[in-house]
Amino acid sequence: MENRGMNERIKSLRKQSVEAVPHIYIERAKLITDAYKMYEGTVSVPELRALAFKHFMENRSLCINDHELIVGEKGDSPQAAPTFPELCCHTLEDMHVMDSRDIIFFKVNDNDRKIQEEEIIPFWEKRALRSKMLNNLGEEWKKCYGAGIFTEFMEQRGPGHTVGGEVFYRKGFLDLKAEVETQINALDFINDKEALRRKQELEAMKICCDAIIIYAERYAKYAKELAEKESDPVRKAELLQIAQNCLVVPAHAPETYYQALQMYWFVHIGVTTELNPWDAFSPGRLDQHLYPFYKNDTAKGILDDTKALELLECLWVKFNNQPAPPKVGITLKESSTYTDFANINTGGIAPDGSDGVNEVSYLILDCMDEMRLLQPSSNVQISKKTPQKFLKRACEISRRGWGQPAFYNTESIVQELLNAGKTLEDARRGGTSGCVETGAFGNEAYILTGYLNLPKIVELTIYNGFDKVSNQQLGPKTGDAKDFKTYGEFFEAYKKQVEYFVNIKIEGNNIIEKIYAEYMPVPFLSLVTNGCIKSGKDYNAGGAKYNTNYIQGVGIGTITDSLAAIKYNVFDNKKFSMEELQKALDANFEGYEEIHHLVTNKTPKYGNDDDYADDIMKSVFDLYRGMVVGRPNVKGGKYGINMLPTTCHVYFGEVMMASPNGRKAHLPVSEGISPEKGADVKGPTAVIKSCSKMDHLATGGTLLNQKFTPSVVEGDLGLENMANLIRAYFNMDGHHIQFNVIDRKVLIDAQKYPENYKDLIVRVAGYSDHFHNLSKVLQDEIIGRTEQSFS
Amino acid sequence: MEHLLLDIQKYSIHNGEGIRTTIFFKGCPLKCKWCHNPESQSYRAEIMYNKEKCVSCMRCLMKCPQKGIVEKDGFYPVPRDKCDACATCVDFCIYGAREKAGRLYSVDEVIKEIEKDKMFYEQSNGGVTLSGGEVMTQDINFILQILKRCDRMGYNVNIDTCGYSSFERFEKILPYVDTFLYDIKHIDPDKHRLLTGKDNVLILDNLKKLNDKNGKIHIRIPVIEGVNSDDENINGIADFIKDMNITMVSLLPYHAIGQGKYDRIDMEYEGTDFSAPGEERMLEIKNIFERKNIPVKIGG
């Protein structure tokens, strides 16, 4: 395996990160359980959560890896994964599965298992939040969830998709604590009916300030101890510097570039061990946050580019050391990866609207190019003002084939945020996180609630709401499709089905969110999310300045081509009847080769800039958008939609029979807004044109994968054309595009001989992953994606 | 007005500057032995038959309205004498073994396809390339209509030509064309006839006249080892163009991509012995042009 890194320090840290074995870190579960035993019933819920967090920070094990400059791990060492039994209490069977599964495993040792069995399970089995949720959700919801109509993000992980803003680069936690105290003193117990709740939440925040400061002080002490024992004078000085940093941050605002990075990292560890929110806790616009420190330090002569880059590379290793929290069941299927989706946006624009590309932006590109790690997801925001040099440098890295950086359209992000009611300045401070999800960084709780299986709903429409896979009536009886005289009638029935399932999903969301607000506040995350201190309300209870829920639509390519196949062949050209189509689908097209040929090869398809198919895509999208966007959630905010799949397109395909577009039963559906595999035959400009007919600005993010053969993007000309494609797509309001530039032959060989390709990284959905860590079906799906070439 | 086209290709990045849409006309007066699009040579639509994909399901045989398809050695070749390229067999060939080369397009249809990618032309300084087959031997009114509409919309147009056509035609389209991608295959008229079926007198004469009329010219030379890669030929070409106002010479090393397609239209490939010159020789050839101060590059 290639040993990357700018110098020996980084090489050895990176090696440790890549080679460490992912394992369960049981200490958190144990300490949290002890704290609940100590405090539960004696204090309010927010204070209980805060005291548990503090107990953990006071007693947890510390880790300073050899040579490292930034300290703090979620667990006891790299690749350790804490568990969160208060949310999802793993059974011994779960532990066994995690330990023994082939991919995305977590090793569990005998001691872990013993603690789980003797201390964790007895205490949490019945009280974990997941049980509370399942007790409160209706039968319809459970049926739909079980049949794969939608997934549920919050059953094993906390609400998240939240990204850090600039607050903790300007204020220390002592400053924040003082702000909280001011708020407490200003509470009006005469007129404000919620004053007590606010006080409890604010008191909890205060405890969390103490907790994170204590954690850093323990690190300062530990680093000093190590320094005293250290014989190498260079390392000794480094350890003393670490100790000094930990006494400044997080208690106080960072004074230097180095401390700014350490500050961010302490906050990251705080947020991701307080609970396990989705998508870790990204630093968001890292180049914007670091730039003032960089400028200041370089002017003073205490920082040069080599040192600045080295510290970035140290941070990159830190991200890569933290695997996503262990998942099981459907949640594992929808997000089958170690990646925890911390997603760094580089470039874009500054809050005043000027070009945001600065020296640190280029350093970050150098860092991602050198490091080539799974984590963090490294991306660039491209605006009209972005210099061509920056765009081309990003293209140059992207065409190396491992999928990073992905490209985001700043103007679209800003417009999407404005459409969703953000102020212009907040919008300009925003970006995308997770895979492609738009958010007002530092100001918004934007919660992805689950994926919706759009092609499955067409399947149900064909069979009058009956699901032949799970063998039960799932949707409303909207009529036997055989009796429909027009495509309009079919689409009308589909509309009723979508409406029904969207309502069930939203009902479920409302219940789950209330449960989180009640039982699982996150006072530490609330401290660093604008709005929570001021409102005295928790992040999980609508305390943030903005509160958005997303439902992510999956399979737009498959559903569009399926509806096009029905409209074109059954109604417009009468090539075969609905009854014949049903029989063909029932038989998985076996014995119906001619129908399969017609729908596969002789029907207009999405992805070819053909209005026949693309108009259908628009009708599906507009309907979905109309049903979701703008609906109220229970936190005082609104619903939005994204079009992205992570790995859910594989799971959603599994629960489906054959589809009218010729896709065979149980194979993956299309991913993101990309066309169905093999459907796009007119080249990349046609794909981009089709995709741009969707109204991206009405979403909170869309995901487009483009696969190129390496020869298409080689040389200066290839680079130029890649940059031009991106600019043109963005001129048409496209939200995001990413590239896989790997020869198909390489992927096929890697599937056969995984041992030879241990460090082959490919783009999956909004993230990259090791090819050998993907399921066989997902590997096949990526190999099968249309490769755009030229002649 | 409708015209037979072979294909309209999007994201064409090797037929002039930037991202382009290339319109391939069908039919060519030359028969170059190395031609990589043999299905572009005939001025008529034709059915291509790929034996490798055929599973002998016999749907073509049963569905052919001419009843012309007859089994031969387990395969179902196209009855070239009877076939009018109605493509019924193509529609029913579920294994994709049969394809139709050539389809009629109206001017509006062509323009609609061109307009689809206008965002990309703007971004990349690209545009439209009319190619073939040989565009200059096709219906000039059809071509003029396309050119005039592109001109009005501000799309940059390149003409990819072998030069074998009356100069009158070049003159007619000259005002609407940005660049001529002009092929020179060999400087010797006899060898040219041997390799392409026609001598090069008209071609070189047109090139001179085009230069005199201030046409923007980008020369393209397919380079085949031992066939036209010798010093004598290269020097001959270079000397012929050195006093002209040439924007660029592209040296295109031979490739065998089109070889497999010959069998599909029952043609024989005469270029099995052809190969590209080595990298070193390509650089030497490039050097010959450079020494004469002619702008040159390897590749499109």
UniProtKB/TrEMBL annotation, chain A:
<keyword id="KW-0456">Lyase</keyword>
<dbReference type="Pfam" id="PF01228">
    <property type="entry name" value="Gly_radical"/>
</dbReference>
<feature type="domain" description="Glycine radical">
    <location>
        <begin position="671"/>
        <end position="791"/>
    </location>
</feature>
<dbReference type="InterPro" id="IPR051215">
    <property type="entry name" value="GRE"/>
</dbReference>
<dbReference type="InterPro" id="IPR050012">
    <property type="entry name" value="Glycl_HYPD"/>
</dbReference>
<dbReference type="InterPro" id="IPR001150">
    <property type="entry name" value="Gly_radical"/>
</dbReference>
<dbReference type="InterPro" id="IPR004184">
    <property type="entry name" value="PFL_dom"/>
</dbReference>
<dbReference type="Pfam" id="PF02901">
    <property type="entry name" value="PFL-like"/>
</dbReference>
<feature type="modified residue" description="Glycine radical">
    <location>
        <position position="766"/>
    </location>
</feature>
<protein>
    <recommendedName>
        <fullName>Pyruvate formate-lyase</fullName>
    </recommendedName>
</protein>
<feature type="domain" description="PFL">
    <location>
        <begin position="8"/>
        <end position="664"/>
    </location>
</feature>
<keyword id="KW-0556">Organic radical</keyword>
<dbReference type="GO" id="GO:0016835">
    <property type="term" value="F:carbon-oxygen lyase activity"/>
</dbReference>
<dbReference type="GO" id="GO:0005829">
    <property type="term" value="C:cytosol"/>
</dbReference>
TrEMBL record, chain B:
<keyword id="KW-0560">Oxidoreductase</keyword>
<dbReference type="InterPro" id="IPR012839">
    <property type="entry name" value="Organic_radical_activase"/>
</dbReference>
<dbReference type="GO" id="GO:0046872">
    <property type="term" value="F:metal ion binding"/>
</dbReference>
<dbReference type="InterPro" id="IPR058240">
    <property type="entry name" value="rSAM_sf"/>
</dbReference>
<dbReference type="InterPro" id="IPR007197">
    <property type="entry name" value="rSAM"/>
</dbReference>
<protein>
    <recommendedName>
        <fullName>Glycyl-radical enzyme activating protein family</fullName>
    </recommendedName>
</protein>
<dbReference type="GO" id="GO:0016491">
    <property type="term" value="F:oxidoreductase activity"/>
</dbReference>
<dbReference type="Pfam" id="PF04055">
    <property type="entry name" value="Radical_SAM"/>
</dbReference>
<keyword id="KW-0949">S-adenosyl-L-methionine</keyword>
<dbReference type="InterPro" id="IPR013785">
    <property type="entry name" value="Aldolase_TIM"/>
</dbReference>
<comment type="similarity">
    <text>Belongs to the organic radical-activating enzymes family.</text>
</comment>
<dbReference type="InterPro" id="IPR040074">
    <property type="entry name" value="BssD/PflA/YjjW"/>
</dbReference>
<dbReference type="InterPro" id="IPR017896">
    <property type="entry name" value="4Fe4S_Fe-S-bd"/>
</dbReference>
<feature type="domain" description="Radical SAM core">
    <location>
        <begin position="14"/>
        <end position="295"/>
    </location>
</feature>
<keyword id="KW-0004">4Fe-4S</keyword>
<feature type="domain" description="4Fe-4S ferredoxin-type">
    <location>
        <begin position="45"/>
        <end position="74"/>
    </location>
</feature>
<dbReference type="InterPro" id="IPR034457">
    <property type="entry name" value="Organic_radical-activating"/>
</dbReference>
<dbReference type="InterPro" id="IPR017900">
    <property type="entry name" value="4Fe4S_Fe_S_CS"/>
</dbReference>
<dbReference type="GO" id="GO:0051539">
    <property type="term" value="F:4 iron, 4 sulfur cluster binding"/>
</dbReference>
<dbReference type="InterPro" id="IPR001989">
    <property type="entry name" value="Radical_activat_CS"/>
</dbReference>
<keyword id="KW-0411">Iron-sulfur</keyword>
<dbReference type="Pfam" id="PF13353">
    <property type="entry name" value="Fer4_12"/>
</dbReference>
